[in-house]
UniProtKB/TrEMBL annotation:
UniProt cross-references to Gene3D superfamilies, sorted A to Z: FAD/NAD(P)-binding domain
Organism, as annotated: Podospora pseudocomata
Positions of the Amine oxidase domain: 17-289
Highest rank taxon of the organism: Eukaryota
InterPro entries assigned to the protein according to its UniProt record, in alphabetical order: Amino_oxidase, Carotenoid/retinoid_OxRdtase, FAD/NAD-bd_sf, Phytoene_DH_bac_CS
Entry annotated with the keyword Transmembrane helix: yes
Family: Belongs to the carotenoid/retinoid oxidoreductase family.
Name the UniProt record assigns to this protein: Phytoene desaturase
Residues spanning the membrane: 558-580
Pfam families referenced in this protein's UniProt entry, alphabetically: Amino_oxidase
Length: 589
């Protein structure tokens, strides 16, 4: 009804998921308020500026899966470009530095990749690379359709034949390292094509081989950087939300999710740390999921209605395997460092041991692998003229009993020393520390304090097999009606494009629960990426552009010749002994 009071929603947290879902719910007609504990939006995907005028991305610094971003904007009836977002392609993708002085340059240039791979594994190596790329393409397409555009609300869905048949090809029970050894026969290239599991906060020796889709998208679609910093994309979605009526309240930490109703199991609003109570029909949590279940939802000692459900589940979540953390240095360099490209990977010589230190002992490896980003290389606005902004991210273990917050200052000092020594040795640079004008540091304790991240794990819960799909914490809160989750630790998982996809999934679940239609192309009607569809529309879809599988495909040829061969055998045997001579056919050959 036109005069009906709009349903109200409170979103806790203005990270990528919170910003996206608030705009989606506002587009659907809800009155939405976003509550953020910090004085900035974007969460880990935020930027900050130094006193000397350098700009740093606090979290993500490379944009992958660009079509998921485009889909989000298309659902709002706009585009990245129309909202003022300019994507800059990073070319090459990476320089990957090894301890023996060799550098592998990864790029979207097929000819360049052919030269790089044949340098180490010869012509046969390039053929195996193409085979690997084809498999990774399958992982990418299947994941888009059957995982990233689908919610999982119960385990029975995993037995659905329409899901099982295609997802077998994702090879979810084989590690990405194991799968990669089939295609790359040198340890050097195996490392080149497995390190990206760190995007998911996992070791390549444990991560399902499905995640080869990450390096596939880098090679097939490129690595991009939004001019002005990664947060400009979320700022654009925030502006869209504000136009639709979303209200943002910064510096507003939430103390508790309030519950009520006849049985006390319905979310009714939130209590702020200031003591103020806010009522709402819906509560969507974009705070860290494990933190929220342990701290924001009522516990058994304070609420006998939902507490008996929440408390044991919260304890179970705290025991689940978490992703890694990081020591991140943000350095203002007094001069340009041309030896470093936009994206640089320095791989540990003791590759497996470095991952074991992170994921088994939860500490800093003695010989760490690390990533160095120079945003000013692709976007000069990141630093003053003739200077460079440099971000160094060292994956490390999360906070644990053996490595509590008090142990990290000494580990940070060791990490800095190791990084500078490695960069100088492999690049030939000298006296790097003397060029650092300013330094900001995030380590596990800072990640935990700044963003309420459980154990300081920067990518939420792990993405091991029993932490994904229906095994991952659900988007609908456990034991509390009208409460939902969006973000890294709920389905479908971590990473900005994945979280944006998750915002669509959760928004449609909410609207479905409330018998409301989604004002965009719903998940059940998703047929492929936005860019491909827009390209087809521009071509006009005429006769020349008709995509039709030919009869004479390789598969058909194989089948046809198999039938012909079988018929030949049958004819020979039906001809009987008269057709045979001594050891062969009778007749003149």
């Amino acid at each position: 009804m036109a005069n009906e009071k709009p349903r109200t929603a409170i979103v806790i947290g203005a990270g990528a998921g919170g910003i996206a879902i608030s705009a989606r719910l506002a587009k659907a007609g809800l009155k939405v308020t976003v509550l953020e504990k910090n004085d900035f939006t974007g969460g880990r995907c935020s930027i900050f500026r130094s006193k000397a005028g350098f700009r740093f991305d606090q979290g993500p610094s490379l944009l992958l899966l660009p079509n998921l971003f485009r889909e989000t904007f298309a659902d709002f009836g706009t585009t990245l470009e129309a909202e003022g977002v300019e994507l800059l392609q990073c070319f090459p993708n990476y320089d990957i530095w090894f301890s023996d002085g060799a550098v592998f340059r990864s790029s979207t240039d097929t000819a360049a990749m052919k030269r790089e791979i044949e340098k180490w594994e010869g012509p046969d190596g390039f053929q195996r690379y193409l085979n690997w790329l084809a498999e990774a393409h399958g992982h990418y397409e299947i994941s888009l359709q059957h995982v990233l555009h689908r919610n999982f609300t119960n385990h029975a869905q995993l037995a659905d034949p329409t899901f099982v048949a295609p997802t077998i090809a994702l090879h979810p029970l084989e590690s990405i390292w194991s799968r990669t050894t089939r295609y790359f026969w040198s340890d050097r290239l195996r490392r080149v094509f497995t390190f990206a599991t760190m995007y998911m906060g996992m070791s390549p020796y444990d991560a399902p081989s499905t995640y080869s889709l990450l390096q596939y998208t880098e090679l097939a679609e490129g690595i991009w950087y939004p001019k002005g910093g990664f947060q400009t994309i979320l700022a654009a979605i925030e502006r869209i939300g504000r136009r639709l009526g979303v209200q943002y309240r910064l510096n507003t930490p939430v103390a508790k999710v309030l519950t009520g109703g006849p049985d006390g199991k319905t979310a009714t609003g939130v209590l702020l740390e200031s003591g103020e109570k806010l009522e709402a029909d819906l509560v969507i949590v974009n705070a860290d999921l494990v933190y929220a279940y342990n701290n924001l939802f009522p516990q058994e000692s304070e609420n006998k209605s939902v507490g008996p459900t929440i408390t044991p589940y919260a304890k179970d979540l705290s025991k689940r395997e978490a992703s890694c953390s990081s020591i991140s240095f943000y350095w203002s360099f007094s001069k340009k460092i041309p030896e470093l490209g936009t994206h640089n990977i320095f791989l540990a010589d003791e590759y497996k041991e470095s991952f074991d230190a992170i994921f088994k002992r939860h500490t800093l490896p003695s010989d760490p692998s690390f990533y160095i980003n120079v945003p000013s290389r692709v976007d000069p606005t990141a630093a003053p003229p003739d200077k460079d902004a440099v971000i160094c991210l060292i994956p490390v273990g999360h906070l644990s009993a053996t490595h509590p917050a008090s142990s990290w200052p000494s580990l940070v000092a060791s990490a800095k020393k190791a990084v500078l020594a490695t960069v100088e040795k492999r690049t030939g640079l000298k006296n790097l520390e003397s060029l650092i004008m300013e330094e900001t540091i995030n380590s596990p304790p800072e990640w935990q304090a700044k963003f309420n991240l459980d154990r300081g794990a920067i990518l939420g819960l792990s993405h091991s097999f029993f932490n994904v799909l229906s095994f991952r914490p659900r988007t609908r809160a456990k034991g509390v009606r009208n409460a939902y989750f969006v973000g890294a630790s709920t389905h479908p998982g971590t990473g900005v494009p994945i979280v944006l996809a998750g915002a669509k999934i959760t928004a449609e679940q909410i609207l479905g629960d409330k018998k409301m239609e989604a004002p965009w192309v719903p998940l059940r009607e998703w047929k492929g990426d936005v860019q491909a569809k827009q390209g087809h529309e521009k071509r006009g879809g005429g006769r020349l552009d008709l995509v039709k599988r030919p009869l004479w495909t390789d598969d058909w040829n194989l089948f046809l010749w198999s039938v012909i061969g079988l018929l030949g055998v049958v004819v020979v045997f039906l001809a009987g002994p008269a057709a045979w001579g001594n050891g062969g056919f009778v007749g003149d050959w």
